[in-house]
Amino acid sequence: METHCPNFSFTSFYSVVSGVVFFWAVIASAGPLRRVEDTHWYPATATWYGSPEGDGSTGGACGYGNMVDVRPFRARVGAVSPILFKNGEGCGACYKVKCLDRSVCSRRAATVIITDECPGGYCSGGRVHFDLSGAAFGHMAVSGYGGSLRDRGVISVIYRRTPCKYPGKNIAFHVNEGSTPYWLSLLVEFEDGDGDVGSMHIREAKSNVWLEMTHIWGANWCIIGGPLQGPFSVKLTTLSTGKALSARDVIPGNWSPKATYTSRLNFF
User: Fold this and answer.
1) Cα–Cα distance for residue pair 23/251, rounded to 1 Å
2) Rounded Cα gap, residues 84 and 89, in angstroms
3) Among residues 134, 161, 188, which one ends one of the domains?
4) Which domain holds residue 50?
5) From CA 42, how far away is CA 64, in angstroms rounded?
6) Does one domain contain both 147 and 184?
């Protein structure tokens, strides 16, 4: 069966910021694994977008839809420059961002989830840059000084990678609009720990063979062939540390496009 997905443009999806995807699963990991958390801080710059106290605009290059408006994404979203976006494989990763100007900045770091890419401007030239929601940007300020901090426009910050935490949530899979038994596309979300996805495989009903899915854009993956026979098991491997999670029969035989199927597991 051919598993390569052709170039497919979800123009309508590209402006979307969220997805919901969870699965029945068995955790399987091979060999010693690194920790995603980094204790070292690195220099970067940051700006903000949307309304001053807002959660960030809906839409985004990761494809997460309007979940920016609800917890746990709410007020915690951010776009990053290509060096952290990683052609979409950086989607879902979490970072702590802290500003250094003690006249307006607190010691508090904002924890943000990567939902979008910021091309051009401060994000170009191999720079590390965060474009945060107004609320996330203001969170770094001393109490009562959020407006003063936002008035600075672009600021110097330090950042580090941190594990994603979604209390009470499990990993899920959203079947993208347009999916058929011959072209199946999935969006992954609410992944604790690493937050990012390095590879995905799918296994058809009554099969022992894992078929590799292709990363198409943002947090979206697909497979073509067919007709593909559900229910489907899904195996997810993180980009950062290679941790793996397998969800048995997470997507039922009577699956439908635009539906979300939730697992009972997560990495934490």
Assistant:
1) 8
2) 9
3) 161
4) 42-161
5) 27
6) no
Degrees to nearest 5, angle at CA 120 with 115 and 121: 110
Q: What is the pLDDT of residues 54-91, one digit of tens each?
A: 666 566 888 887 665 556 555 577 899 999 999 999 99
Residue 10 in contact with residue 176, Cβ under 8 Å?
Answer: yes
Query: Residue 224: what residue type?
Result: I
Count Cα atoms within 13 angstroms, Cβ side, for 177.
11
Taking the C-alpha atoms of residue 131 and residue 137, their distance in angstroms, rounded to an integer, is 9
* Region of residue 180 (left: phi > 0; alpha: psi -120 to 50; beta: else): beta
94-124 pLDDT tens trace: 999 999 888 999 988 999 989 899 988 899 9
Phi/psi zone of residue 87: left (φ > 0), alpha (ψ -120 to 50 degrees), beta?
A: left
* Amino acid identity at 121: G
Amino acid symbol at 262: T
Give the domain CATH number at 220: 2.60.40.760
